[in-house]
TrEMBL record:
Residues 43-66 have a biased composition (Basic and acidic residues). Signal peptide: none annotated. Residues 70-79 have a biased composition (Pro residues). It comes from the Eukaryota. This is Uncharacterized protein. The lineage of its organism: Eukaryota, Metazoa, Chordata, Craniata, Vertebrata. It holds the Pfam family UPF0449. Belongs to the UPF0449 family.
């Protein structure tokens, strides 16, 4: 008879997550027609606004968030 213990399968190590600089380079290098940008673009705009304009300082009339965003609880957490 064979051994009844399960052999552990060794998985390869995960690569390091990308740095902020790598993510920004990736986003800036993506074409404006990339599905990620066009899918989430507000209706009525031909192209989403990207680039340095997104990093502008807040205007006087704009509201600031008073609390950080938190994810919605999953159904099993709320019971």
């Amino acid at each position: 008879m064979g051994s009844k213990t399960k052999k552990r399968v060794l998985l390869p190590t995960r690569p390091a997550p990308p740095t902020v600089e790598q993510i920004l380079e990736d986003v800036r290098g993506a074409p404006a027609e990339d599905p990620v940008f066009t899918t989430l673009a507000p209706e009525g705009r031909r192209r989403p606004v990207r680039g340095k304009a997104d990093l502008r300082p807040r205007q006087q009339g704009e509201r600031e968030r008073s609390a950080p965003l938190t994810p919605d609880p999953t159904p099993w957490e709320s019971q």
